TrEMBL record:
Residues 95-254 form the Smf/DprA SLOG domain. GO terms for biological process: DNA-mediated transformation. It holds the Pfam family DNA_processg_A. It comes from marine sediment metagenome. Transmembrane segments: none annotated. This is Smf/DprA SLOG domain-containing protein. Belongs to the DprA/Smf family.
Length: 259
């Protein structure tokens, strides 16, 4: 990747710029934003306007973004990113930007792909035989039994179980998978250092420490969960699987973003 990781995270996650703009910067090694800290306010506004005038690039409220860059730099956010990169690496977190060769092809082809994925746990994971088992956070007794049984049976047949690691069906399917000695992929709606839900923190660490799978998030590791991110993560778990098994849920369920 041509753009440095710290610049990519600053521009993509803190400013933030859309992926279409990041692509232009990445594909243009001479672009001034490769060293944006040297630019003055007028130069930053000029470059943002140039990006916004490109085909298929939409940058809203450019004056606000110019001020954002100034404020972020004044608050030493860039320096914090550099410091955090070292800390995250020590904690076993892998950072894979969209333009990295290791970025999963399955995620590149979806609508609104993540700019970056952060992972922790098993590396060099094979996504080719993954199934998503999902459903309500409050299953009936029958639904709970089915979730665990289906997770177990798919795992016996060599499938990796993928879901959003939510309470209820998601967790039960994962537990069934682990009983069969299978592997799991948990897609979080929070950062990896703030795993959600809190009831699953122990299970989160068990999966990582015992090499039973890995967790993935499109959010910065220190980010907390939001209602909106719980819905949008579903497109990722769906993309990583070859199919979805839906076990109970209402028509208003966040799962509608996945199916």
């Amino acid at each position: 990747m041509n753009l440095s990781l710290q610049n990519y995270l600053f521009l993509g996650h803190y400013l933030p710029l859309p992926l279409s703009a990041l692509r232009i910067i990445e594909e243009t090694p001479s672009h001034p934003f490769h060293d944006f800290k040297k630019l003055n306010k007028q130069e930053i506004e000029f470059e943002l306007s140039n990006l916004g005038n490109r085909k298929r690039v939409s940058i809203r409220n450019i004056p606000k973004k110019v001020n954002n860059i100034e404020n972020l730099l004044k608050n030493s956010i860039f320096d914090k990113i550099v410091s955090n990169l070292e800390k995250w690496k020590e904690l076993g977190i892998t950072i894979i930007p969209y333009f990295d060769d290791k970025f999963p092809l399955k995620l590149k082809t979806i609508k609104n792909p993540p700019k970056t994925i952060f992972t922790i746990g098993l590396s060099n994971f094979d996504y080719s035989k993954s199934i998503s088992i999902i459903g309500t956070r409050k299953p009936t007794a029958y639904g709970a039994q089915m979730a665990e049984t289906i997770g177990l049976e798919f795992s016996k047949r060599g499938f990796t179980i993928v879901n959003g690691f939510a309470n209820g069906v998601d967790t039960l399917a994962i537990k069934g998978c682990l009983k069969a000695g299978g592997k799991v992929i948990g897609v979080l709606g929070s950062g990896l250092l703030n795993p959600y839900p809190k009831e699953n923190v122990e299970l989160f660490h068990e999966i990582i420490n015992k090499g039973k799978g890995f967790f993935l998030s499109e959010h910065l590791p220190n980010d907390s969960v939001k209602k909106s991110t719980l819905a949008t993560r579903n497109r990722i778990s769906s993309a990583l699987s070859i199919g979805n098994v839906f076990i109970e849920g209402s028509t208003k369920s966040g799962i509608r973003y996945q199916l």
